[in-house]
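This section describes the prediction task in plain terms. A model, or a person checking by hand, is given the sequence of a single protein chain and must write out its three-dimensional structure as a string of tokens. No templates, partner chains or ligands are provided. The sample shown here is typical of the held-out split.
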Amino acid sequence: MTLENGDVEESGRMMHFETGRVEDYVEVWRRYPQETSAGSYVLERDDGLAFLGQIGERALGIARLGEGVAAWRDRMVDGEWKRFYAFGAGKEEIEKILPRLPGTIPAYWKEGETAKLGESRWTVRVIGRP
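The expected answer:
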């Protein structure tokens, strides 16, 4: 449902990772203008169980972790990625499975090519240069 201010409210039922039970949830999603000057991309880890993405000054990492999920959300602040939210793993583990992104998109990244980040290899699935 779209709210008066333009946010979108989503509700449903899903597994709550802390309790292990299926529970009701309500989320509110805010649409941000896309800052295309920073570019965009989606990377898929070589095992297909993790993705990293950037759109403008916002980035997201998400990975299957055993029976659960680990994820983080970053925002570019003064030319560096700042972590705003993470769950599903400790700091060291999450950075191992979902490494931090480079400050700028490397010139050699092209769709279908392989990139090395952290300890894993990633396939560039989509890329939009600034």
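For orientation: The chain has a mean pLDDT of 88.
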